[in-house]
Each structure stands twice: as structure tokens, then as C-alpha cells.
Amino acid sequence: xxxxxxxxxxxxxxxxxxxxxxxxxxxxxxxxxxxxxxxxxxxxxxxxxxxxxxxxxxxxxxxxxxxxxxxxxxxxxxxxxxxxxxxxxxxxxxxxxxxxxxxxxxxxxxxxxxxxxxxxxxxxxxxxxxxxxxxxxxxxxxxxxxxxxxxxxxxxxxxxxxxxxxxxxxxxxxxxxxxxxxxxxxxxxxxxxxxxxxxxxxxxxxxxxxxxxxxxxxxxxxxxxxxxxxxxxxxxxxxxxxxxxxxxxxxxxxxxxxxxxxxxxxxxxxxxxxxxxxxxxxxxxxxxxxxxxxxxxxxxxxxxxxxxxxxxxxxxxxxxxxxxxxxxxxxxxxxxxxxxxxxxxxxxxxxxxxx
Length: 355
Description:
Elements: E1 4-5, H1 15-26, H2 43-60, E2 66-71, H3 74-86, E3 90-95, H4 98-107, E4 112-118, E5 140-143, E6 145-146, E7 151-152, E8 163-166, E9 181-187, E10 198-203, H5 220-225, H6 235-251, H7 254-274, E11 278-280, E12 291-296, H8 304-312, E13 316-317, E14 328-331, H9 338-354
Parallel strand pairs: 1-13, 3-4, 3-5, 5-8, 8-9
Antiparallel strand pairs: 2-10, 6-7, 9-10, 11-12, 12-14
């Protein structure tokens, strides 16, 4: 039976990425060696790093003065690495969910943090509006997509402060005005590659302005100077990322990916809104096109486990909501084909008809 993978992360990868990565595990670039054992100092792997970096810059139209880094530690490492490098006196943060809350906690270790707004009062079911970002902050940090709660900021905030963003779960799903940002970071395991590598897009001119000593491995300048090769990088995830980036370019780039993502999400949200037993959990103007969260209406709540079983029998996996929210979550990242979304919609309609 064909599987329809809606897991939030690690999540679905394109067949192009999986096939090419599998081949490289057996024989990488005609070397007779596996990508699992190749030296990261080899010319063949240097070519992987160079092409992957170039494709990120091309797809996101990154201007001069920025560097694309491939780092370890996940987005969670970036929660401390960003303030370590950028927070001299005060930073502003927008609290829109679990991951932004974790980033705020880390930033408070390095200086004053102004949480300009939060949606915690309604269990993070909306994106705050009408807040003011002080002009004197070192940066303003946002989490663009909130995987647990299913909200998303599909825009670059228009503020005077320099921006920093965690784009782990929606990078490459919309055009970005990178020039507004000092740092954009993203764990790979949503829209790019297997877990193990994190992309950081860093404006070099933003660095070197804090007085504190920064440990070598946590200093962005270290990784800029060494081309992401200061220590052994996660070779396999980076190779997989390169395959995904090639795939994105072949599809037509970011605008085509966005068109597909919007179409998939619109169909699924329409099915939820038309349903008599399912209901969305977030405010409509904040709905994520990456993570669609919904629940059973209260009078049908006892049927949640039955629907999970029903969906599983049709090859649908990974739709159980996060433990802190419950209900259902369909993660429909770039690699998710619209055919799988239609299978889920049909299962929802058939289950509703059955009861």
C-alpha cells in the first residue's frame, strides 16, 4: 500500500532526493566510495557544498554580503547562537509558539529581551498584530511558521529593526526579502533534507559588534571563514539538501513551490471548513500552509482515535496532532504531492459519511 506521509518532521522528502541520496550511499560521484565514508575535504564533496550554497542563493535571490552556512545542532542551537553573536544590549522577540518561547529563553541569557507581543493567551492560535518594535534593539526575532499550532507569517515584517528569523518549517515556500534580515536559519528536516544539518544565512556586516568572547564553534565568523568546514560537516544531510535544491530549481523555483503549497492548503482547509465533524484550530488569517491543524468538533471528540485508525488503513501516516494540542496535524511541506492531500480529504469525507 502506498504511504502518505504527513509527519511534521523528520518529514516527507521528494523521491528525487531519496533516490539520488540512496545511490550516493552506494557510490558517491563515481568515486567508488559511499557518501557515508567520503572525506569532507575531498574535491567531490567540496563541489557539493559549493553547489548547494549557490542554489540557496539563487532560489532565495540572496544579495551580496550574505553567506550560506551548513551547521550542526539544529535550530535549537541557533536559539543561543543568534544572541551570542548579535545581542549587544537588547533584542525584540515575537512569541508565537513553543519554538519562539524556547528562543526567548535562550536570548535572556545574553541581554535584555523585549517580548513585543504574544499569542499565548489563546494557546498560540493567532499571530499578534499592532505591536511596536523599538528602534533601538539589536534585532527583531520571529518564528515564521509554528508547526505545533499551525500558524504562519507569510510576510517579512516592515519594521526599522534588523530581522532574524527561524524559518525551519517554511523556508523555500515563499519569496523572501533577504535584505531585511541579519540571519535566517532553518533546520533541514521539514523542507530540505534528513535531520542533521541546519542552514544559516548570515549577513557578515552584522557580526563583530558584541563585546563578549564567543566560543569558536558558536561564532558565525568561524564558519564563514572556513566555508562550513571548520569541523566535519554532516555530509549525508548536506548531499540530500543539494538534491532537494536541484529538485526545487527544476520545478520552477520558489514561486512555483508557493503556488503548489497554497493550492494544497486551500483544498484541505476547504474540506475542514465544509465538514460537519472537523474544525480548524487557528484563526483563518493566520493559517499555515505547511502544517494544517484541526480537531473533531466537541460532540464528536471521542471519535478521534477511530479516525486515526480509519486513515491509517488508507496508508495515511503522521496526522496525529502534537501532544500539547491534540487533534490532527497534516504537514504538507514542499515535497507533499497534492494527490496525497486528496487521499486525506477523501478519507475525512468518507469517515464523516460513515458515522
